[in-house]
Amino acid sequence: MKPEQVQAQLTRVLSEAISELRDPRVPMIVTVDRIQVTPDYTLARVYVSAITGDMDGLLEALSHARGHLQRVVAAQVKMRRTPTLEFRDAADNRL
Question: Where's it found, cell-wise (predicted)?
């Protein structure tokens, strides 16, 4: 699968999975702006944004839910190896 296809699938799956999280630190609307996958598919940087809420709290909540979100990705995206998810603020343009 091409990186663009993987990134599109990850965006779709994670957007849905994040919206279903029941954590008070996760606002109602969280946008997965983009995902960068490393060439070897071992790491996926997930850039998220939210209109309301505390970004630090959101990133902390997503990191806390990383295991659950990776299991959702593994179940729904057919890949040889599920990438490690790393959550970042979409407003932070550092790579």
Answer: Cytoplasm
Q: Containing domain of residue 46, as a range?
A: 3-89
Structure tokens at 61: 């909540």
Judge residue 74's burial from the number of C-beta atoms within 10 Å of its C-beta, 0-12 exposed, 13-18 middle, 19 or more buried: middle
pLDDT digits (tens, 9 = 90+) for 20-61: 999 999 998 999 999 999 999 999 999 999 988 789 999 999
Exposed, middle or buried, 62 (CB in 10 Å: 0-12/13-18/19+)? Answer: buried
Per the structure, how many domains does the chain have?
Answer: 1
Report the candidate in 86, 6, 93, 83 with the shortest Cα–Cα distance to residue 42: 83
HSE-up of residue 62 (Cα within 13 Å, Cβ side): 28
CATH number of domain containing 76? 3.30.300.20
Question: Is 94 among the domain residues?
Answer: no
